[in-house]
Write a structure and sequence with these properties.
Layout (H helix, E strand, L loop, with lengths): L1 E10 L2 E12 L5 E5 L4 H4 L1 H11 L8 E7 L11 H11 L11 E3 L2 E2 L5 E2 L4 H10 L4 E5 L3 H4 L6 E5 L2 H8 L12 H8 L13 H13 L3 E4 L6 H6 L10 H13 L15 E2 L7 H5 E2 L4 E2 L1 H4 L4 E4 L7 H5 L2 H6 L1 E5 L4 E5 L3 E6 L18 H9 L3 H5 L3 E4 L5 H4 L8 H18 L13 H7 L4 H14 L3 H17 L7 H9 L2 H4 L3
Parallel strand pairs: 3-4, 5-8, 8-9, 10-17, 10-18, 11-14, 14-17
Antiparallel strand pairs: 1-2, 2-4, 6-7, 12-13, 15-16
């Protein structure tokens, strides 16, 4: 007999349809053969499947069993094939009959006793099932809430092989998991940190508002303990809430890598990733075989914070240059290439010198000029060009630390950001650009008109600071955002002047 079920394999963060075909024919000796480019982890699963069938009270076929996974040229490397393969064997051996095989996709990993174990990528699989017009998807109970985020299909949770057989054969009915998207947003979207906790650093907060208002990349330079990390961790609290679409985009990435927080099937807060400076290139941008998303993709729609920026390997930082411009990263291999989203806001921090105390009035710095230049030189000019705002974060004096007057709060800063983003939404209607920080050269010429005084100041700064063409455009983008925060329709000389002041490393740190 021949049976056929629908399931999925993961390719990057996308789910690709796979048909599981099982044929059982008479043979003098029992043998099971898997074909269809199954990886080692899938091939060895047949022993687990056979024991799960027997331990669930069914009979293992004593004939020749051929399991075909189509399409044949797609590598199959997930444990999610356990459940559809076991169901296919039971159907082909005549132990179950089902009219629902054509209506539901099936995914799941089995334990030896037939219990279900959670899988990776359930959200992507549910999205693909909806795109194929299926009625629903059968998933392990622990993945039910995640799959239910896709409201167009039924997410059927099962706890064991026996329960899956009962549902697909029509012997029992299982209610689909209800989508609770609004409940997740209410429960998980608040932040535990607030800018009101940060004493002093009002100028740095101003720069962070500008950066958040238009997704500008930002670099903070200051001595140890000045609050750079504390400021960076609070940036997500002033960004707009994730939209449902952005939430699903980000959750898919965490789902396929198995990094979703426990009991939280949907990410409702903007991600904040802070990798250690020993991270590899593949760990940062993604890689492996099959390709897996890196930290920049896990920062999609959120913040990537690189602390102690010069301590990262220079080559590791250089691989970020293209994703910073394009908002995605493509991992190419001999047989295929995979593209991961990587639209993130870069926030970086560094000391002004190797010892960290250059220009600090409270501590002596013993670093000489060549040492400082070598330290700053660890970051390439092309990468610095891609950082719109570069600011100094000085040590906070005791009077501000001891002050009981709270600083500006995240709520107040967020209100400013939201107003500026409303202006940008109207400005870029009908365009792929969403924020000033993403404007192309053509859009800069269109939306960043300068009067004679502003043009003269910018020209003088370009010559005196040696700004590149990219840095010139960054200044204009930043000036446009500063004007938006003030509700101004035209860029004024004060806006240009402030934007130029945010090119700290072009002006020097000593």
């Amino acid at each position: 007999m021949l049976s056929k079920l629908r399931t999925f394999s993961l390719l990057g963060i996308d789910a690709v349809p796979v048909d599981i075909e099982v044929d059982i024919s008479p043979s003098s000796m029992p043998k099971t053969v898997m074909v269809g480019l199954a990886e080692a982890a899938v091939r060895e699963s047949i022993h687990r499947i056979e024991r799960a069938i027997v331990n669930s009270g069914y009979v293992r076929p004593q004939d020749r069993v051929v399991v075909n996974m189509a399409p044949a040229d797609l590598p199959k490397n997930a444990a999610a094939f356990d459940l559809p393969t076991s169901l296919g064997i039971l159907a082909a051996s005549g132990q179950i009959r089902s009219e629902r095989f054509g209506q539901y996709a099936v995914v799941g990993e089995l334990a030896l006793d037939g219990a279900m174990r959670p899988i990776k990528g359930a959200l992507s699989m549910a999205m693909q099932a909806a795109a194929m017009g299926l009625r629903g998807i059968v998933v392990p109970a622990e993945n039910g809430a995640e799959a239910a985020v896709v409201e167009e299909i039924e997410a059927i949770p099962v706890c064991s092989l026996t329960e899956a057989v009962g549902f697909l054969s029509g012997a029992i009915d299982i209610d689909p998991v209800p989508p609770r998207i609004e409940e997740y947003f209410r429960q998980y979207s608040s932040y535990d940190v607030d800018f009101a906790d940060v004493r002093g650093q009002e100028m740095a907060k101003r720069a962070l508002v500008i950066a958040a208002a238009a997704a500008h990349n930002l670099l903070m330079v200051g001595p140890p303990g000045s609050g750079k990390t504390m400021l960076a961790k609070r940036v997500p609290s002033i960004l707009p809430d994730l939209t449902p679409g952005e939430s699903v985009e980000t959750t898919r990435i965490y789902s396929v890598t198995g990094r979703l927080p426990a009991n939280q099937p949907l990410l409702t807060r903007r991600p904040f990733r802070s990798p250690h400076h020993t991270i590899s290139e593949a760990g940062l941008v993604g890689g492996g075989n099959p390709p897996s998303p890196g930290e920049i993709s896990h920062s999609h729609n959120g913040i990537l914070f690189l602390d102690e920026l010069p301590e990262f390997q220079r080559r590791t930082l250089e691989v970020m240059r293209q994703p910073l411009e394009d908002g995605c990263v493509t991992i190419a291999r001999a047989t295929r290439s995979t593209t991961f989203p990587a639209e993130f806001m870069l926030v970086a921090a560094m000391n002004p010198c190797p010892c960290g105390y250059r220009n600090d009035p409270r501590r002596d710095c013993r670093c000489n000029v060549p040492q400082v230049e070598r330290y700053i030189g660890k970051i390439s000019g092309p990468l610095l060009d891609r950082i719109d705002i570069q600011i100094e974060v000085p040590a906070v004096p005791f009077s501000e630390l001891a002050s009981k007057t709270p600083g500006i709060s995240s709520e107040e800063m967020r209100a400013q950001v939201m107003e500026a983003r409303k202006i940008q939404t109207r400005r870029f209607v009908g365009s792929r650009t969403r924020y000033n920080g993403q404007m192309s050269s053509r859009e800069i010429r269109k939306f960043c008109h300068l009067n004679d005084a502003c043009a003269a100041l910018l020209k003088q700064s370009v010559h005196s600071l040696g700004l590149s063409a990219r840095a010139h455009d960054k200044v204009l983008r930043t000036a446009r955002t500063i004007a938006d925060l003030e509700g101004a329709t035209a860029i004024d000389i004060a806006h240009i002047s402030e934007a130029i002041n945010y090119r700290m490393l072009d002006r020097g740190v000593g």
